[in-house]
Structure formats: C-alpha cells, structure tokens
Amino acid sequence: MKNLVVLTGAGMSAESGISTFRDAGGLWERYPVEQVATPEGYAANPKLVINFYNERRKQLLSVQPNKGHLLLAELENQFKVTVITQNVDNLHERAGSRNVIHLHGELTKVTSSLQPNNPKFIRELRPENYEVHWGDKADDGSQLRPFIVWFGEPVPMIEKAIEYTESADIFVIIGTSLNVYPAAGLLNYVRPGVPVYLIDPKEVKVTSGHKINVIRKGASEGMEELKNVLQKEFV
Ligand code: OAD
To answer: Is the whole-model pTM more than 0.70?
Structure first.
C-alpha cells in the first residue's frame, strides 16, 4: 500500500462548527493569542487560560466529525494513511483515523505545568471530567495545565512528523494557512516528484519547489474530489 501523509489544520474542522484561527471572526480575533496561547499568558493569568481550554473541551462534546474527516478515515482501506494534524480536537480519531500525530497537543489531555512533555505526567481526561479547576494537581504537585503546545514552546512531535513526511508517496494538505512553523515547513521534507494536493477554499501561499495540485474547495467537497483522483491515479 502507498504511504499517504496528510497535514491538516483548522479548516479541516470548520465544517464541524469549530472556528478557524485566522479567518474573519476566527478565534484569535476574539481571544488575544498572547493571553491564551503562550507560556507568558499562562503565567500572567492561569485561571483565564484554564477556563479558555475548558470551553474548547466543552465544545468537543457538541461537535461531530464532518464528511471530510470520514472520507479521510475511509482512505485507510486503500492507503497506509498518516494524519499529521495541527488541530487539538479529536475529530480525526472519532472519524476512525488510526494513525494521528498531534503537533500542537490534544484538548482531551492535561499535564504538569513544570514538565509538560514528560509522559509520566500526561493524563487523558474522560468526557465527564472535561473541566479542569484551578488547584487541580498533576502527579508532580504542579497545577494541571492543558496539554497544548503554546507559541514559543518546543514541538516534540515534529520529529516523528518529519519521518512520516519523508516516507510519503502522496502528500496532502487540508485547511491550513501554513502560517505556523515548524508545521508549515513539513512540505520541504516531501521527496522530489511526490504528488502534492492542497484542499482549501481560499488561496494559500505555498513556497516550495513542488508542483501543488490545488483543489479550491472546503474539506468535505474537496475530500470527495481527492478520493476520486486518488482512486483513478493510484489504486
Ligand atoms: P488558520 O486559521 O490559520 O487557517 C485555516 C485555513 O483553513 C485557511 O487557509 C482557510 O482558508 C481554511 N478553511 C476555512 N474553511 C475551510 C473549510 N471549510 N475547508 C477547508 N479549509 C477551510 O489555521 P491553521 O493553519 O490550522 O496553533 O493554524 C495553525 C495553528 O495556528 C493552529 O494549530 C494554532 C494556531 O495558532 C496553536 O494553537 C499552537
């Protein structure tokens, strides 16, 4: 089976009702990114940050994977699929994708404020306990914090993502403005000659030597088209 590697961003979940970050009315317009997505913001007002992610987690309970997520999961019947996502929601997993790398963390997990990337302290929350309170402690005694990679923090999963990207026979980008590194740089690890597809309803500026096959559609419609193309060309 061919290795199909897919990089997804907020646009993947837009049709599920989760807003993107940089589109008009996006999350960063309503909540200053410095306040809710940086270590400095967390240090300045941890309660506000904990609460912001409690709200995001609560939203997970009311949204469903969209057709784009489902079609992507179905491709596992014909390809060895790896999803590299910048999204912190769990919609790829809930749609049935089995190999998902979360570059920016996961809403459903919490960790230590002192050693956020130490696996000993990362804990999965059950939906009935999605709310984290000020005073809840990780196993090292520090305040429990969201397992989210904030701006300025290391991105440990990038190594694994690069390895998969280098092994891709087909590379697909869905719903990301490619503004945030290192995720946006993954395309540089795609081997020369590997077909690259990009699904996004808007123009995305891509700087790379690869020829990009653009599908100018939303995630669901775009995935339908991609599925047809892949079946015709590679199965
Ligand atoms: P952005 O909000 O920057 O970009 C969203 C992209 O999705 C844009 O290119 C939109 O055109 C596209 N889009 C909108 N609706 C769509 C739809 N229905 N179908 C497909 N695409 C659609 O989000 P990201 O690129 O994911 O990081 O942002 C990257 C990172 O920046 C996020 O992971 C987050 C953010 O700050 C952290 O929080 C660390």
So the answer is: yes
